[in-house]
Structure formats: structure tokens, C-alpha cells
Amino acid sequence: MPKGSLQAMVVGAGTMGTTLAKLLAGHGVKVTMVDSDPQVLETSRLDVGEGAVTIRFTTTLKVDESPDFVIETVTENVAVKQEVVAQIEASVADTSIIMTNTSGISIDEIGSAMRVPQRFLGAHFFNPADIIPAVEVVPGSHTETLVVEKACRWLKRLGKRPAVLNTCVPGFVANRIQHAVMRECLSLLEKGVVEAEALDDIVQYSIGVRMALNGPLCQRDLNGLDTHLAIARYLYPDLDARQEPAALLEEYVAQGRLGAKAGRGFYHWSDESRAEHQARERESLQRIIEIATQYSPKDEP
């Protein structure tokens, strides 16, 4: 089947939905972007840029021809996602595969009221979706194996690296690891061990650059598992293991220090510095990904 014959619908025109539409349109997929808010749709159209001429922007889920794939990418709220998925299922043919771009909510919970849960699964893209290669593919307990296989083939045609989870756990894989890292980072800040800028430098220019070339398990193999075990034996008892979010994080959020979008988080931000940083980040991400994908030990026969 030629790429141009594929049809997809993206429901939710926020940041993730917009980059998904850009990704799809850039690979010759016929895209319909749906959002109930006309202003959000217009912002999405402007953000997509030149590629927007090939995308249909609409406030209604009604379709003349059912898409091959539908990606739900609305707010990370179970009740909202359940409602939207129900609307999607009522609007498309039973042959359409429906995906949720949730970052870690139970697939079964989101699809609990579906008539045909066998064609429903999680496809967790990472922002920006048109650049980051990895996609966590998360089947629900009812998802058919053929649906997972078809979704993976489609993702590979989009230049992605689909990674299938055997079990759906809260947060999936990436967010569990990311939050475990951040728990320790916040603990170190609270204890006064290091300042924010120094912590970022240590992580970015040590384990950060290494992780761009080797996953954590590959890196442990290269370092030696005996060495890792020896360090783990004395270090684990001293690592943060709290079951609640850090008090520092709670304090910042209560103060309105929400990050770049609010002008202050760990750092000060202006609209200009945020836009400049994001533009540089996109450009740098593309270069890093190009280097990382040139060679991977795991890809060897």
C-alpha cells in the first residue's frame, strides 16, 4: 500500500497533536485534525506551517471515509479520554485502529466502555513527535496481536522506533525512569548537595550524552555488571525512596513556579528565551538523533 493511500485522524490539536499532524503529513499520510475549539485549531494550523495545506482541520468527528488510524491526544485526564475515545469509536468504522497518546494511564481504563477494545492500544509519542524516534506501544488486555503488529509496521513507515511493552504499568517505561531520576534530583536539591545549574550540567554532560548513544542496560554491560553491583550495594540504602512528591516540587507549584510556561521554575524564562531555547533544542535534537542512529550495537546481526 503506498504511503499516500493511508488516512489518519488526530483528535486534539494541542502541542502533541500538532507535531503528530506535521509528522503524518510529512510522510504523505492524508490527515484530519479534530478539535472542538476553533481557536486551538487555528493555532495548530499556524504552527504546522507550510504542511498545513495538506491537512484538514475540523471541529467535528464526522467523517466521509474512515481513517486507517485515529490518534487521541487530548488532555491527560481519564474521564476526558474515555469520553473522546467513545466519540471516536462511534464515528469511525470498526476496522479503524484507535490509539491513545496517554503518557501512562491504563489502556484498559481508557477503553473500558469500548465496543471493540480489540482494536485499541496506547501509542506514546514523545514531544516533539515529529522528531523523537521512540514510541512506546502499549497493548491493553483485549488488544489483538495483529493490531499491535499493524501499528508497529505503520510507525516504522513514519520513521519511528516502536517499542512494545509486555505489560501496561502506570507511567509505562520512560516516565517511570524519568520520575525516578527526578525524585533523586529533587532530593539532592532539598538537601543542599548541589545547585540547580550544577546538577543540570552534571547530568547533561555525563550520563546525558552517554544515554544518547547507549541505553542504560547497554551502558551497564560496557561498564561491567560486577562494578554496577558493587556500587548498588552501598548506594541504594542512601537513595531517595519517598512515596510522595518532593516538598520542593509541591512548594514551587503552589507558588506558581510552573516552569517556562509561567516564566519561572528552576530558572527564569521570558517568552523570547523560551522560544529561542526550544528552537535550538529542535535543531540539536535532530543532529543528536542522526548521530545516535548511525550506529547502534543492538542493531547488529
Automatic annotation (TrEMBL):
Organism domain of life: Bacteria
A biological process term (GO) from this entry: fatty acid metabolic process
Keywords: NAD, Oxidoreductase
Species of origin: Halomonas korlensis
UniProt-annotated site: Important for catalytic activity, residues: H124
Chain ranges of the 3-hydroxyacyl-CoA dehydrogenase NAD binding domain: 8-166
GO molecular function: NAD+ binding; oxidoreductase activity, acting on the CH-OH group of donors, NAD or NADP as acceptor
Domain 3-hydroxyacyl-CoA dehydrogenase C-terminal: 171-269
Keyword Plastid attached: no
Protein name: 3-hydroxybutyryl-CoA dehydrogenase
Binding site for NAD(+): G12, A13, G14, T15, M16, G17, D35, E76, K81, S103, N127, K261
Oxidoreductase found in the keyword field: yes
